[in-house]
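Example record

The entry below shows one chain as it appears in the dataset: sequence first, then structure tokens.
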Amino acid sequence: MKTIKLVFAIISLLLTAYLPAYSDNGAAVNIDPLPNTGTYYIIPMGTNDALQPNAATLGQNVFLTEFNRSGMQQWKINRKIDPVTNQPTNRYSIRLAGENEELNFQPHPSVGSAIPIVGLDKVTYELQATQGGVFVKCVERNGDAMYYNRTATFTEPHFGPNDGSPKFIWNFLNINGAGGGVAVAPIDPLPQTGTYFIINNSSHEALQPNAAMVGQNVFLVEFNKGGTQKWAIDRKIDPVTNQPTNRYTIRLAGEIDGLNFEPHPSVGDACPVLGMNKAVFTLEPSVDGLVIKSVDRNGDAMFVFKSGMSEPHFAANDGSPKFRWNFVRTE
């Protein structure tokens, strides 16, 4: 319960910082999704962990520990300014907050995949906005991105090629709960018509049918970018306004028609199946992903259910990470 309350507290603060707002005349604006210079907690999306060094001394490893708002979890980030345009860029340096300016956050100097350390190198990072947060890419590591890695002993940040999955997505939470962004053109948080992997933000697993045949159950398995993890989604257009809506149909990608993703036709809480029914889903944005609601099931939302294996089920949305999903383009 304590963990759930902390996660909800993080989400409520992030809503102010990252979701669309409206101007006085009703025009939609968006808060710059990249953080400005300031002091932040750095949190993997959908978790209750935060970056924290083993100690505030040079050479110490940086782990992921339970989010507790301590001083050791506070990071000073500096957003670089373009000298020609005088506008903020997507490049940053990161160091441990406090008076010692030499405790920079950097990948391990000799072991590429090992956990980062606090060291003397002022490494440059590029932050790239994505659904639910940002990717943190290291310039000195040829764009390798930071990701959330859980072992039997520790939870660690590592660097590697970005596969677009939720474990690569991070939230920067201002220690004062403020966004500090700037007004920019609105960004549509919903996916467009196309082919995607559909990944749960809690389990980091992807939707995949047992086989590419009508009637087969759809499970959640390890994300591997396989062909049967690719889904063609079609975003419906409002016939009056000619604008995209939040309604979608989903089918298994490929040349075989009729392999539509739909809730189980007779058992409400069972695995979805591939079927002939073009079921309609609504997608709702949240800070840490999308909520997928079934129109046929009166708005019940899809979540990950664990029972020996991972299954997508439908039920009333309780706001927890198991109900959050990411749509990652296959291209």
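Notes for this example: The helical segments are 2-18. The radius of gyration is 21 Å.
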